[in-house]
User: Which sequence fits this backbone?
């Protein structure tokens, strides 16, 4: 071969190799990448009826239906953050983190849900709480609504199935925003998908409704309208505020079970029904087309007269679209979707509308309640999917975490989990150019995990719930996270880690 031809081939090979080889990262965090930890009011505060707080639907649900909570527990006292917030915030700060996520309890501020009665003790509590966060130079990330709807509103018929909820949540949000201008990042509504699916279709979260799909869709419509209305009110009435606002949208990664066309479509359908149902109206406008088509065609087949999915007016489409300054992503697992071959066309349900069956790969580690799998590159895939479908927005991961059974303080699984997941997030940032600006770990402490009671342990700190002193004991991962916050660097060289399961 003539020299010049060999040279040309060599140059071409080098060029095409460099085109194919993605930019590798060395585990360093980008300059503005922040770490944080999160909690929510009902899960940690306790003091359910103290100092003027009104009951929420969660107080009622856990009191009336202990059988629906795995260990028959409730969060009347839980880990008592109401009285121990100074210690908890100091412990958060000792992790070296910058973002402290917490939520306001609506009935601690407006005991019966209406803005006509304000509880000064509740206001004082959050004032002190936020002052403490600022004292340690952390940024308060305040969630306006994390599922604890005031019971009185619910008893008056106003919940996520009643259009009146929108004005009430805006009144409450306005008061919280005005009263706590120190909040550095606002989360308007936490996980509307989980709230609507588990609260209005499956019934395992308050208010415990087992629905035929219609209730879930109404809930989706009203949470989206609320996200839009809170955001528009915020921008209009508080133009001088600098804090960004977005909902925390849960989105898991769904892969097709096989490479058949049916399963590919099933996976896509499930992504659209779970994530797209909320991301599409907020970042593009209106429901995802496939969601509309699917629900409508099943309704027609079953000869049902009334529409099952509420229709947005053009005005609603416009005010919901763009009602987020960034994407707040809560991510917990990856699952496989398979096409559901047979479903009775006359049995109406969200599950039948989606028409998929989920499973986990046998090789994946699944936590002890069978809900969450550990698939580190799932987070990278979901980040890419979000960017591809909804545009190049800033993404703050508002929740990411893993649970264990609480039997040991040596939670190596959490250390490996955060290492591998954050390494994948760094790959998304450096190699795929997804604009992720931080990760808020869930959770700061073990606490009340909704229908899993005290059986799930998500925290960096372990608390034996039967211990009257509620002693906070650091797990091994607390030190790991502190070191990570300081070095801002991970060693990302174990793609085939041997996971220390089962957990
Ligand atoms: C999402 C919820 O926002 C949070 O409250 C819960 O503890 C975690 N998922 C873990 O299930």
Assistant:
């Amino acid at each position: 071969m003539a020299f010049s031809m060999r040279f040309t081939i060599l140059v071409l090979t080098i060029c095409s190799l460099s085109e194919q080889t993605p930019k590798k990262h060395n585990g360093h965090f980008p300059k503005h990448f922040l770490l944080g930890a999160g909690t929510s009011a009902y899960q940690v505060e306790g003091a359910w009826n103290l100092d003027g707080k009104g009951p929420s639907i969660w107080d009622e649900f856990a009191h009336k239906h202990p059988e629906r909570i795995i260990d028959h527990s409730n969060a009347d006292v839980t880990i008592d953050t109401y009285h121990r917030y100074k210690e908890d915030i100091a412990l958060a700060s000792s992790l070296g983190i910058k973002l402290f996520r917490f939520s306001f309890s609506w009935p601690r501020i407006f005991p019966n849900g209406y803005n006509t009665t304000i509880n000064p003790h509740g206001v004082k509590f959050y004032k002190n709480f936020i002052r403490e966060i600022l004292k340690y130079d952390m940024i308060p990330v305040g969630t306006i609504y994390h599922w604890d709807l005031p019971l009185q509103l619910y008893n008056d018929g106003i919940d996520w199935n009643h259009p009146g909820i929108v004005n009430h949540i805006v009144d409450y949000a306005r008061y919280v925003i005005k009263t706590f201008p120190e909040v550095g990042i606002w989360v308007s509504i936490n996980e509307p998908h989980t709230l609507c699916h588990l609260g209005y279709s499956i019934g395992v979260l308050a208010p415990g409704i087992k629905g035929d799909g219609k209730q879930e869709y109404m809930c989706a419509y009203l949470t989206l309208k609320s996200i839009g209305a809170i955001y528009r009110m915020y921008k209009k009435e508080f133009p001088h505020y600098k804090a960004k606002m977005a909902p925390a949208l849960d989105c898991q990664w769904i892969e097709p079970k096989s490479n058949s066309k049916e399963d590919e479509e099933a996976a896509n359908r499930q992504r659209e029904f779970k994530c797209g149902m909320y991301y599409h109206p907020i970042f593009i406008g209106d429901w995802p087309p496939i969601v509309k088509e699917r629900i409508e065609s099943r309704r027609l087949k079953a000869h049902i007269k009334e529409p099952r999915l509420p229709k947005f007016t053009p005005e609603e489409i416009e005010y919901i679209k763009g009602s987020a300054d960034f994407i707040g992503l809560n991510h917990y697992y990856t699952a496989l979707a398979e096409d559901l071959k047979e479903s009775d066309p006359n049995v109406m349900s969200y599950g039948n509308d989606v028409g998929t069956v989920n499973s986990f790969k046998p090789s994946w580690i699944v936590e002890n309640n069978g809900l969450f799998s550990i698939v580190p590159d799932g987070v990278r895939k979901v980040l890419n999917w979000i960017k591809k479908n909804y545009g190049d927005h800033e993404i703050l991961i508002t929740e990411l975490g893993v649970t264990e059974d609480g039997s040991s303080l040596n939670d190596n699984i959490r250390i490996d989990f955060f290492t591998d997941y954050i390494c994948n997030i760094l790959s998304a940032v450096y190699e795929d150019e997804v604009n992720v600006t931080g990760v808020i770990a869930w959770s700061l402490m073990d606490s009340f995990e909704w229908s899993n009671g005290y059986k799930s342990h998500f925290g960096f700190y372990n608390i034996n719930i039967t211990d009257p002193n509620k002693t906070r004991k650091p797990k091994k991962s607390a030190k790991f996270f502190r070191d990570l916050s300081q070095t801002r660097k991970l060693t990302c060289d174990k793609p085939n880690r041997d996971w220390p399961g089962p957990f």
